Amino acid sequence: MPKTWSPSQAKKFAKEARLNKPYYVVYDIAQNRAPYEDAQLYSEFTFTRRAPFTGNPMTDGGTSAEGLCLRYGPVYDKPPAGMRNVAGPGPQVGAPLGEDHSAYLDEAELRGMEKLAAQGTDPRARRIRGRRV
């Protein structure tokens, strides 16, 4: 059974947190902003050093163990089962096309792509008033 610390137990978590051990927090994802994303994702934090004056465990980014628990709690000592890491690849919404699928570009599409390529950000290929820059 994974151990859990709620935000009200932030000081207790700061005392019990160990260096170089990963801890996990869960984020609720707004479905109106990311409709194809999972409803919840977890993130991993590892404390690699101690704060100079307090001795509390700190991440490389400067987040203390107590601050992590207060802001993002509850904190878990094992990754939540069946949940995807926020740093992992997202879900695949569309499926790949089969090998029997073939698509042909007509002349108008080819001209449009050539125009976009000519107006690209490469200054050597860009034209201004009919002459090369």
Describe the protein in words.
The protein is α+β, with helices and mostly antiparallel strands and 133 residues long. It contains three helices and nine strands, in the order βαββββαββαββ. The protein has a five-stranded mixed sheet. The protein has a two-stranded antiparallel sheet with strand order 4-5. A hairpin with a 6-residue loop joins strand 4 (49-50) and strand 5 (57-58). Helix 1 packs across helix 2 (65-72).
Mind sketching the topology for me?
Elements: E1 4-5, H1 10-16, E2 22-28, E3 40-46, E4 49-50, E5 57-58, H2 65-72, E6 75-76, E7 84-85, H3 107-118, E8 127-128, E9 131-132
Parallel strand pairs: 3-7
Antiparallel strand pairs: 1-6, 2-3, 2-6, 4-5, 8-9
Q: Any descriptors?
A:
single chain; 3 helices; two-stranded antiparallel sheet; five-stranded mixed beta sheet; 133 residues; 20% helix; elongated; alpha+beta
Strand proportion, as a percent range, falls in 15-25%
Number of helices: 3
- What are the segments in which pLDDT stays under 50 over at least 5 consecutive residues? none
Largest β sheet strand count, sense and barrel closure: 5 strands, mixed
Compute the separation of the termini in Å. Answer: 66 Å
Radius of gyration: 25 Å
Overall helicity: 10-25%
What is the SS-derived class?
alpha+beta
Summarize the structure.
This protein is an alpha+beta fold. The protein has helices spanning 10-16, 65-72, 107-118, and strands spanning 4-5, 22-28, 40-46, 49-50, 57-58, 75-76, 84-85, 127-128, 131-132. Strands 1-6-2-3-7 form a 5-stranded mixed sheet. Strands 4-5 form a two-stranded antiparallel sheet.
